Amino acid sequence: MSDKYDILKLKNQLCFPLYVSAKEVVRLYKPFLDELDLTYTQYITMMAMWEHKTCNVKELGEILFLDSGTLTPLLKKLEDKGLITRTRSKEDERNLIVNITQKGMTLADKAMEIPGKMEGCVKLSKEDAECLYKILHKLIDNVQ
Amino acid sequence: MSDKYDILKLKNQLCFPLYVSAKEVVRLYKPFLDELDLTYTQYITMMAMWEHKTCNVKELGEILFLDSGTLTPLLKKLEDKGLITRTRSKEDERNLIVNITQKGMTLADKAMEIPGKMEGCVKLSKEDAECLYKILHKLIDNVQ
DNA sequence: TGATATTTAATTTAACACAATTTAATTGTT
DNA sequence: AACAATTAAATTGTGTTAAATTAAATATCA
User: Which of A34, B78, B96, B133 is deepest in the core (most CB within 10 A)?
Assistant: First the structure.
């Protein structure tokens, strides 16, 4: 029934449903994000840019919990698409300033539909969604 | 204070803390898993194998929510390490049977320490951990 | 002040994961 | 028996991430 290896079973892990949920939710976004020609990581980066308009890579990394190894190639792609610009700071050449373009801002209007569509897919009650949100933020605070 | 783009802000997304939590938790595992010379995905695969002892790739994929594109190279690495064997089924040559080896089983003893160590890192109350577990499983059921 | 070390910021590289496609084996239908 | 449809795994290409590297700025001290 129960042996000493029970604690190694997948059903007794908290990390596993967390890993699976995140992966599945990103997968659910895919068809919606394909319409904007964005990956999920590009999407959250654009969310940060829609809000902040200007940012350097370091700040963006702190907001998004991404490091520059992820952001550098990603930002180059967004620049290629014309959604942002990348320019070195005159004051400190180490800093790369990211600015949103007009085209980038325009994309927000198309993106507005997505959060509502996703809610419909995930199908959690308002209470569960709020509870999940709170616990995940606690977890993130704890591990920083 | 509030504008029509509020619904696109990161702080109003549920997906974002989910994405960050999963990533950060996997990152926390890294130092412990380095001692076993396993990646996180290899670790959950070994968990499935410690429990089931034998499995084909399809079954393993269903258990782990991974596809053959992820599993094929991963299983070859675990085979190289001597933790599993990969053999084609005699009954149906399309099926690749994965079996755990003695060396693979032995690794479970070292892995036994990890769940406890991770609990210490994540630092959620028993109530929060249980609640999180339940909601995540609901979410996974909903999106299947 | 000038030389050197340290810190900081971003890029590059290599490994891993995932989506989409391909190949191979089996089953079903006529 | 022949062909189509289905199933299982492998392969390929793209994106993400950790670790190492490069470049720039600042601090230390002779």
Answer: B78
| Residue A101 approaches strand C within 7 Å at CB | no
**Across the 144 residues of chain A, what is the mean pLDDT of every consecutive 10-residue run?**
89 96 95 95 96 94 93 94 93 91 96 93 94 96 88
The identity of residue B4, as a single letter, is K
- How does pLDDT run across B66-94, given as a tens digit for each residue? 999 999 999 999 999 999 999 999 999 99
Residue nearest to nucleotide D22 (CA to C1'): A94
Question: In whole angstroms, what is the distance from residue B51 CA to residue A5 CA?
Answer: 8
pLDDT tens, B125-136?
999 999 999 999
For residue A17, give Cα distances in angstroms to B19, B46, B61, B131: 12, 16, 15, 12
Spatial contact of A16 and B41, defined as CB atoms under 8 Å apart: no
- Whether any strand D atom is under 7 angstroms from the Cβ of B13: the reply reads no
State pTM to two decimals. Answer: 0.93
CB proximity under 8 Å: A 77-116 to B: 108, 111-112, 115-116
Residue partners of B113: CB distance under 8 A and separation at least 6: B32
Q: What is the DSSP string of B72-135?
A: HHHHHHHHHTTSEEEEE-SS-TTPEEEEE-HHHHHHHHHHTTHHHHHHHHH---HHHHHHHHHH
Give residue for tokens 């998004």.
Answer: A64
